[in-house]
Structure formats: structure tokens, C-alpha cells
């Protein structure tokens, strides 16, 4: 009879392998238990978040009268006189950068900017700081913060003498994580800066994403400059006894003027876009209005690539009867320009001009008012 009992050495080898397997199983179980324990600790830490209920994403605003009605402060009104006060601000998140237990945020409203600070403290947790640093640029946020005076000033912000110490931050409307252009790149001056960044946004990208491009301080200032000139043009001439009228923009017949016109389809016939309100101004003077003006679009079919020959622009036109000499008209126009420039020299719009001039120094004329 054959004995199938394995040799004694083989038994020892198998027992060693079994011991190794058991040791590995025990090690895996220990690691699993440690990992589970660490997760439990993290969950406890989240539960003990001191900033819970002070940050996050707000539900969709649906004109609900029962929702909280906060009183917001405009960024342009933030100054040293509000130091120590707690305010609510709704603005776009322009930029942010996290540094350790702090997150610095630049908020933007139109052309005005202010710095906000989210700092770990007894009332602000690291989770709130992490949330603040993860908000996508150009999102609209609500912040509750205390206004703090900054003696050294904040470079790059219009409200440089104050900053906001944040106690609450809520995302009202989140933007896409990836934008086709960055506002800070589109806002960068055109002049070459060898030491700074040379990132530029080309014109095609700007025009394809015009909504984003219009958010830059330069475009904000230029549009407000145009609106201010039109407002002053109307106000000054109205005080001088002028009457505003609105001339037609479609002509039935070719006006036969000095400029070419655009032809458009008009039902079964053709019509022409107005190249000037001149005819209607003269008709108003002959109709005893004496002094008239109009602000409106002018269309001229001029195939030109220069910025001085636009196919569509806003015209500021006036017409008046004079008593003895055409110098009366010239004096009226001269006084009009003088009053417009004087008003800009003493108004808040000057700040918009300065912002635009700092970005595009070669695109705006400069003047000194005495």
C-alpha cells in the first residue's frame, strides 16, 4: 500500500504561505478600518462647519414676494465713510485667488471694482474659503461683508481705499467654468508692456462674444460717454428754446445728396435709408419752429475701411433761424460745445472717461478745462 502523506518540509512551506495570506488579509482589514475611521472624522468635521448656512448656491429667483428682500449697496458708493458698517453687495466675480486660509475676490459692477476677503476665523470655516475659491469667474454673487479701511490702498480696484471682509457669500447665477475670453485679458491696455503679460484678445473673438466684451471698463465708459453727450446735447438746446423732433428714416425717393444711400426692399417697391435729416430740419424752420434739433441714426453707403467713414452712426443735428448773420448759428454751436465740455469737467462721467483713456490712450482726445 502506497503512503500519500506529503513530506514534512512541504507541510511547513504550505503553513508559511497560509500565514502570509492571513497576515495580508489582516493588514487590508486594518487599512480599511483606518480609512473608514478617517472618513467618519471628515464627516464629523463637515457637520461642525461653523459657516454652515452662510454660503452656497441660491435657488432660482422667481419674483417670489416671500423671499428675503436685502438692501444692496452699490460698489461705487463704498468708501471710508462706511468703514465698520456691514453691507450686502450683489456683483459679478471678476477674479479670485486662494492663498492658504484666505481667498481674495475682486467684485465688479459696471466699471467699478472692489476687493473682498474671505478669511478663516471663528465665524468663517475653511470650507467656506474653499467654496469661494471654486466659484467660476463672471458669476453673480451676493455678499454680506464688513467694510474695512485699507491704509495702503488696493491696487487695480476703483474703490482702492476700502475692502470687504466677507461673512456670507451666495451664488445667484453661476457662469460657465470655461469662457471664450477673460475680461481681464480684454481689459488690458493696448500699449506694449515688456514686463507684464502680453495676452491680447483679437477682434474676431471680441465680436463673436460681444456680451462679454461689453463688460470691460473701456466699453462701459465709452457707452456712458456717448449717453452723456446725447443727454447734454438735448438738455442744453432745450434750455435755449430748441424743439426736438424725429425725422423719418425711410425715403420713398432717392435723396440725391452728396453721399450714397442704402436701398431696401419695401413691400412691392424700394425705399432708401436716410443719409441725413437735413430736408426735414429745413421744413421745420419753414414751418415756424425757429429752432429744432434731432438725435438719430444716419446711414451712408460708403465703402470705406477707415474709422472716420462709418456706414451707420448717431447724428446730432440742429437747425435754427437767425436774425441778421449766420454767425448767430456758429456762436450757438460754439457755446454748445463749451457747455458740454464744462459739464464733463465737473461731473462723475469724467471718471468713466479717465477709465477708458487709461485703457485706450490713443483712442480718446484729451482736454483741459480752465
TrEMBL record:
<dbReference type="InterPro" id="IPR012340">
    <property type="entry name" value="NA-bd_OB-fold"/>
</dbReference>
<keyword id="KW-0067">ATP-binding</keyword>
<dbReference type="InterPro" id="IPR004523">
    <property type="entry name" value="Asp-tRNA_synthase_2"/>
</dbReference>
<keyword id="KW-0963">Cytoplasm</keyword>
<dbReference type="InterPro" id="IPR004364">
    <property type="entry name" value="Aa-tRNA-synt_II"/>
</dbReference>
<dbReference type="InterPro" id="IPR002312">
    <property type="entry name" value="Asp/Asn-tRNA-synth_IIb"/>
</dbReference>
<feature type="compositionally biased region" description="Basic and acidic residues">
    <location>
        <begin position="11"/>
        <end position="39"/>
    </location>
</feature>
<keyword id="KW-0648">Protein biosynthesis</keyword>
<dbReference type="InterPro" id="IPR045864">
    <property type="entry name" value="aa-tRNA-synth_II/BPL/LPL"/>
</dbReference>
<dbReference type="GO" id="GO:0003723">
    <property type="term" value="F:RNA binding"/>
</dbReference>
<dbReference type="Pfam" id="PF01336">
    <property type="entry name" value="tRNA_anti-codon"/>
</dbReference>
<dbReference type="InterPro" id="IPR004365">
    <property type="entry name" value="NA-bd_OB_tRNA"/>
</dbReference>
<keyword id="KW-0030">Aminoacyl-tRNA synthetase</keyword>
<feature type="domain" description="Aminoacyl-transfer RNA synthetases class-II family profile">
    <location>
        <begin position="223"/>
        <end position="353"/>
    </location>
</feature>
<comment type="similarity">
    <text>Belongs to the class-II aminoacyl-tRNA synthetase family. Type 2 subfamily.</text>
</comment>
<dbReference type="GO" id="GO:0005829">
    <property type="term" value="C:cytosol"/>
</dbReference>
<dbReference type="Pfam" id="PF00152">
    <property type="entry name" value="tRNA-synt_2"/>
</dbReference>
<protein>
    <recommendedName>
        <fullName>Aspartate--tRNA ligase, cytoplasmic</fullName>
        <ecNumber>6.1.1.12</ecNumber>
    </recommendedName>
</protein>
<keyword id="KW-0547">Nucleotide-binding</keyword>
<dbReference type="GO" id="GO:0004815">
    <property type="term" value="F:aspartate-tRNA ligase activity"/>
</dbReference>
<dbReference type="GO" id="GO:0005524">
    <property type="term" value="F:ATP binding"/>
</dbReference>
<feature type="region of interest" description="Disordered">
    <location>
        <begin position="1"/>
        <end position="45"/>
    </location>
</feature>
<dbReference type="GO" id="GO:0006422">
    <property type="term" value="P:aspartyl-tRNA aminoacylation"/>
</dbReference>
<dbReference type="GO" id="GO:0017101">
    <property type="term" value="C:aminoacyl-tRNA synthetase multienzyme complex"/>
</dbReference>
<dbReference type="InterPro" id="IPR006195">
    <property type="entry name" value="aa-tRNA-synth_II"/>
</dbReference>
<keyword id="KW-0436">Ligase</keyword>
Amino acid at each position: 500500500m502506497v503512503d500519500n502523506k506529503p513530506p514534512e518540509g512541504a507541510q511547513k512551506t504550505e503553513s508559511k504561505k497560509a500565514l502570509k495570506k492571513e497576515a495580508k488579509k489582516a493588514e487590508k482589514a486594518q487599512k480599511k478600518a483606518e480609512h473608514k475611521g478617517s472618513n467618519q472624522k471628515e464627516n464629523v468635521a463637515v457637520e461642525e462647519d461653523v459657516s454652515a448656512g452662510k454660503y452656497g448656491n441660491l435657488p432660482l429667483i422667481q419674483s417670489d414676494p416671500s423671499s428675503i428682500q436685502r438692501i444692496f449697496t452699490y460698489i461705487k458708493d463704498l468708501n471710508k465713510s462706511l468703514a465698520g458698517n456691514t453691507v450686502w453687495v450683489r456683483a459679478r466675480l471678476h477674479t479670485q485667488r486662494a492663498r492658504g486660509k484666505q481667498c481674495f475676490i475682486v467684485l465688479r459692477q459696471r466699471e467699478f471694482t472692489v476687493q473682498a476677503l474671505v478669511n478663516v476665523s471663528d465665524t468663517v470655516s475653511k470650507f467656506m474659503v474653499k467654496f469661494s475659491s471654486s466659484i467660476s469667474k463672471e458669476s453673480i454673487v451676493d455678499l454680506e461683508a464688513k467694510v474695512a479701511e485699507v491704509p495702503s490702498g488696493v491696487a487695480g480696484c476703483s474703490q482702492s481705499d476700502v475692502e470687504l471682509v466677507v461673512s456670507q457669500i451666495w451664488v445667484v447665477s453661476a457662469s460657465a467654468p470655461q469662457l471664450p475670453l477673460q475680461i481681464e485679458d480684454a481689459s488690458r491696455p493696448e500699449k506694449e508692456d515688456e514686463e507684464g503679460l502680453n495676452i491680447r484678445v483679437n477682434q474676431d473673438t471680441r465680436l463673436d462674444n460681444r456680451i462679454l466684451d461689453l463688460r470691460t471698463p473701456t466699453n462701459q465708459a465709452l457707452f456712458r460717454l456717448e449717453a452723456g453727450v446725447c443727454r447734454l446735447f438735448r438738455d442744453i438746446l432745450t434750455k435755449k428754446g430748441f424743439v426736438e423732433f424725429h425725422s423719418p428714416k425711410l425715403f420713398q425717393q432717392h435723396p440725391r445728396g452728396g453721399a450714397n444711400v442704402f436701398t431696401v426692399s419695401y413691400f412691392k417697391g424700394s425705399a432708401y435709408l436716410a443719409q441725413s435729416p437735413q430736408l426735414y430740419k429745413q421744413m421745420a424752420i419753414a414751418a415756424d419752429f425757429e429752432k429744432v434739433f434731432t438725435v438719430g441714426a444716419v446711414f451712408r453707403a460708403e465703402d470705406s475701411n477707415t474709422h472716420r467713414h462709418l456706414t451707420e452712426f448717431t447724428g446730432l443735428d440742429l437747425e435754427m433761424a437767425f436774425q441778421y448773420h449766420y454767425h448767430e448759428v456758429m456762436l450757438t454751436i460754439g457755446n454748445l460745445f463749451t457747455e458740454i465740455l464744462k459739464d464733463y469737467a465737473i461731473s462723475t462721467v469724467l471718471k468713466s472717461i479717465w477709465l477708458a483713456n487709461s485703457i485706450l490712450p490713443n483712442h480718446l482726445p484729451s482736454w483741459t478745462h480752465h
